Amino acid sequence: MERYHRLVGDRGATEIEEVRQGIKVRFWANRGDPAHVPVAAVAVDMAIALLFDMCRMNAGAALRPVAVSLRRKTPESTAPYERFFGCQVRFGAAENYFLLAREDADALLPSSNKQLATVFDTMLGAELALLDKSDVIARCRAAVLEHLTSGEVSEEETAKLLHMSPRTLQRKLAEASLTYPQLVDATRRDLALRYIDDAARSLSDITFSLGFSQPSAFTRAFKRWTGSSPTDYRASRTSGKAG
Prior knowledge:
elongated, five-stranded mixed sheet, single chain, 5 strands
């Protein structure tokens, strides 16, 4: 559950911790504080309920947590919460979690199937690997875009912005068959093709928006990308639309 939570979505993180009383399943919301933001509180309610319902689906409908804790403010009626979980729910707490008794967590699941578990683990692992690749590319592109107007941001600077070492960034990009210069070049190309279609943007504006120090450098790069100069490319696009 903890390993694969990102396949469901990125609105929060699930953590599982072994404590003295049993197994604690904790949920952290990534957007908004459920203690102060009503929409965030509802999202956390749904996430915690879904996580526990998944446990109940596997362990049986009789499963009850030892304790449930939520950061949200106490609702007008606590009865629906206690009816669903089957125990008292504490509100205004420091964490969002439910606690399973150790004997429940260690019990053999009625639906257990080692062969299927192995197959599903392989499939989910492959999906998680693809997600990791796309995630680091998206984050890296976002960092490059944010700082492109001030000049080409270095690989070391981007790695720092992503809270990882340059070597880790290189390895993650290599897993996606990319190098950092290739990613920067592709990002610039995509932006250039978008900007060139905007007649309100001058070529000088595009040049510096893409982080090129000189128009000649932009022209060389654009010719490499398209086979045409920016001026000729824009003219051909304009005439094509007119026709």
